[in-house]
Every structure is written in structure tokens, then in C-alpha cells.
Design goal:
- This protein has helices at 7-18, 28-49, 104-111; strands at 2-4, 56-64, 67-74, 113-120, 123-131.
- With 133 residues, it is of the alpha+beta class.
- Strands 1-2-3-5-4 form a 5-stranded antiparallel β-sheet.
- The mean pLDDT is 91.
């Protein structure tokens, strides 16, 4: 599926992705996790890779129980140092110190396996897997 890299298109596209025939038979718990991860990744692309300038995001999904395979590509800016963020959990001493953001890559890394990022021919290529078990 091809999505425009803007917040509204990502919201609409995420609903369409989750209803895609490729996800038929995905257990509810995996579907909920996939929604969180896809929303984080797609919104990061809009906000950071394209920095609001617009563009296209391509998402490919493949489900064969128990594994969901996801490949996402875009033509936006590369990851800093061409590496994925570490995803270290933010440290805070109490509710008053709880940051507003900074949990995205922690969640992505926690909820996926075989997470891979490459920059090839001016494109960002991100792939990962998620398992129903």
C-alpha cells in the first residue's frame, strides 16, 4: 500500500492496512501490537524523515501464522548516522517527570523481532517481524 506522508493520510491508511486481506486471520493481540508499531513507525516517517514536507510511504505486509512480516520504505531523510535509534527507555523519577514522548522506538524494539534498517539508493528501508505467540 502507498500512503501520502501526512498525518491524516497515515491515520486513514493505518485503518486500511489493518483491514487488508493480508492480515486476515491475525489474532487480536498481534493486531493490537501491529497497530501500535505501525502507527509509531509511520508517524516517525512523517515527522522526521519527511519533516512535514510530504512524500510517499510504501508498506508491505505478509502474514503466515504465527508471523507478521512488515517492510516499509520512504524517500525521506535518512536515520541519523544511518542507524536505528537505540530505543532506550526514558528515565524519570516520578509522574511529574514523565516525558511526553520518547517511547516510540522503545515500543518498536520491544514489540518486534528481526528489526532492520538500511539506506539504499536514497530510500529508507525498514523491515521487522511480529509473532502471535
Amino acid at each position: 500500500m502507498r500512503l501520502a506522508a501526512d498525518p491524516h493520510a497515515v491515520r486513514v491508511g493505518l485503518r486500511q492496512l489493518l483491514a487488508a486481506p493480508a492480515l486476515h486471520g491475525v489474532p487480536d493481540d498481534l493486531m493490537s501490537s501491529a497497530e501500535i508499531v505501525l502507527a509509531e513507525v509511520l508517524n516517525n516517517i512523517v515527522e522526521h524523515a519527511y519533516a512535514g514536507a510530504g512524500g510517499v510511504i510504501v508498506v508491505r505486509l505478509d502474514f503466515a501464522y504465527p508471523t507478521l512480516r512488515v517492510a516499509i520504505s520512504d524517500d525521506g531523510r535518512p536515520m541519523p548516522d544511518n542507524k536505528l535509534p537505540t530505543g532506550a527507555a526514558a528515565k524519570f523519577s516520578g509522574i511529574a517527570d514523565l516525558p511526553e514522548g520518547g517511547f516510540g522506538w522503545f515500543l518498536i524494539r520491544t514489540m518486534t523481532t528481526q528489526l532492520d534498517y538500511r539506506r539504499k539508493a536514497g530510500r529508507n528501508l525498514l523491515s521487522f517481524q511480529m509473532r502471535a505467540d
